[in-house]
Design goal:
With 540 residues, the protein is an alpha/beta fold. The chain is 28% helix and 17% strand. Bound molecules: alpha-D-glucopyranose. InterPro entries: GH (IPR017853), GH13_cat_dom (IPR006047), Glyco_hydro_b (IPR013780), O16G_dom_2 (IPR045857), SupH-like_C (IPR054049).
């Protein structure tokens, strides 16, 4: 099989603005990030996904772009970006960047030209209506913040479409000129060395809601056009789509292997949290079975948390309620209708063995694992910050003021650092944890190393293994070799038996503790409460 790098990448996402400030203005920047590359290569990261770093009025954390061809001056210059790319490449780290082209910022020159002049060539870059049609409330991405997807613009004398904030007018993807611009943007960043794009809000791109002339097939075809373009410019570049859609719609994004290479695994993520809440393995089994088979080159990107809310919208109302009760009991921990605005460690009450269980599980599920900055050290959230900012606090590097993120006065920081309590930077930070052999960061490093050694998890075919304990999720991924992985979701120790072929034995690779080597005659495998074990399956 062709070597497909993304199938066994260790992806790490970060926002330049909150990672490391090099010039003391309180805002993270590319020079700061470049200095931190050794940390990332040290823990074994092989691919970075950068959140939007383009010039932006920042109504939506940079997801409102006003210039696709530049770096936000607060974060550095294009020169700093190129130097960063060079240094990342030197360390064997690839870079994927966010491509936010479902919408622009209202301040983008295209929108400014479009609203001023009906006859401007940019008018048709956006979606206008003099009489906006009725829309389904579920189309509101930020309920309670926006009450419509149409906004009247006095200058234009018409309403424009916006699925997200009203400061983010949707682009008209059925317009060939817009598609050409999008390809040009991708071409630009590919020339600067990026290995692909995270396609923001992909479903809105291809659904054509509000576009009168929209032809569904034509819009979906744009995903193939993007793919063709990207592959022609750089054969190993990948497209990773953000598409939280029901299982039956997934094929629209993967196609026959001729559209997106990767999709975030929103479904499995939600099933995982339900399984953790219920401590029942069958939920995860159902989750895996619900996923469609993927064309050979396609891949899931698995994650625990990312920069947005933990969405639960693929679960039923009662299932959502169970997850809320278990992991976000207070109203203030929730956001929008189906979301949780927390990081993992506080959701697990800071219990180390449960935190390990979740990452061990996510890293071993079929697909490619994604970590988000701060997960390697167990950062918490700040619920006093509004909305999704609770999980977007600056990276905690040391116990120096501001967690070593910046030399600026604390009140000048782009966002406050967590400075108190169990998750304060005085306790949770890179430098302190690096000195402690039992810290989360050192455990995470071992997890990453093990995942790299078990490439079957990224490329193999998977199979659910039946056990005699409903709380134990067991699966196997196999290509040339086979990896068997067991996770005990329950708060009590147990032993399970697996039905293996007579000539096969299991060799421990990784686990929550050092277990006695298995006695293959008894066939019984002990697991601690919340325990996990990874094995090679060998021929006897
Ligand atoms: C994506 C981003 C989110 C942003 C939205 C609008 O969902 O992840 O942060 O608000 O798109 O661009």
């Amino acid at each position: 099989m062709k070597k497909l790098w993304y199938k066994n990448a260790i992806v790490y996402s970060l926002d330049v603005e909150t990672f490391m400030d090099s010039d003391g203005d309180g805002i993270g920047d590319f020079q700061g990030l470049t200095k931190c590359l050794d940390h990332l290569s040290g823990i074994g990261i092989t691919c970075l996904w950068l959140l939007p770093f383009y010039p932006s009025p920042n109504r939506d954390n940079g997801y409102d772009v006003m210039d696709y061809y530049n770096v936000d001056p607060r974060l550095g210059t294009l020169g700093d970006f190129v130097e960063f790319m060079h240094q990342a490449r030197e360390r064997g780290i690839r870079v994927i960047v966010d491509l936010v082209v479902n919408h622009t910022s209202i301040q983008h020159p295209w929108f400014q030209a479009a609203r001023k002049d009906k006859h401007s060539k940019y008018r048709d870059f956006y979606v206008w209506s003099e009489n906006p049609p009725k829309f389904e409330p579920k189309l509101l991405m930020f309920p309670n913040v926006e009450d419509s997807i149409w906004e009247y613009d006095a200058q234009a004398g018409a309403y424009y479409l916006h699925h997200f904030y009203k400061e983010q007018p949707d682009l008209n993807i059925s317009n060939p000129a817009v598609r050409e611009e999008i390809c040009k943007i991708m071409g630009f960043w590919l020339e600067l060395g990026v290995s692909g794009f995270r396609i923001d809000a992909a479903p809105f791109l291809i659904k054509g809601i509000g576009i009168k002339s929209a032809d569904r097939e034509d819009l979906q075809g744009f995903l193939s056009e993007m793919r063709e373009f990207v592959s022609s410019r750089r054969g190993d570049a990948v497209l990773l789509a953000e598409a939280n859609v029901p299982p039956e719609q997934i094929s629209a994004y993967f196609g026959k292997g001729d559209k997106m290479h990767m999709l975030f695994n929103f479904l499995l993520n939600q099933y995982m949290f339900l399984a953790l809440a219920r401590r029942e393995a069958c939920i995860l089994q159902d989750g895996l079975k619900t996923l469609p088979d993927l064309p050979g080159i396609c891949q899931w990107l698995n994650f625990v948390r990312h920069h947005d809310e933990l969405a639960l919208d693929r679960l039923s109302q009662t299932q959502q309620e169970e997850v809320f009760q278990a992991f976000a009991p207070d109203e203030n921990m929730r956001i929008y209708e189906h979301g949780i605005r927390r990081r993992l460690p506080p959701m697990m009450n800071g219990e180390r063995r449960r935190i390990e269980l979740v990452y061990s599980l996510m890293f071993s599920l079929p697909g490619t694992p994604l970590l988000r900055y701060g997960e390697e050290i167990g950062m918490g959230e700040d619920l006093s910050l509004p909305g999704r900012n609770s999980v977007r606090t600056p990276m905690q590097w040391s116990d120096a003021p501001n967690g070593g993120f910046s030399n600026a006065p604390a009140n000048a920081l782009v966002r406050s650092v967590i400075a108190e309590g169990e998750y304060g930077y005085q306790r949770v930070n890179v430098a302190t944890e690096q000195r402690d052999p039992n810290s989360l960061i050192n455990w995470m490093e071992r997890l990453i190393r093990t995942r790299k050694q078990c490439q079957e998890l990224g490329i193999g075919s998977w199979q659910i293994l039946e056990t005699d304990e409903p709380c134990v999720f067991a699966h196997c991924c196999e290509s040339q070799r086979a990896v068997v992985v067991l996770h005990n979701l329950a708060d009590r120790a147990c032993s399970v038996t697996l039905k293996l072929q007579d000539d096969k034995c299991l060799i421990d690779v990784f686990g929550d503790r050092q277990y006695e080597p298995l006695n293959n005659d008894s066939g019984s495998i002990p697991l601690e409460a919340y325990g996990y074990r990874w094995f090679w399956m060998n021929q006897m």
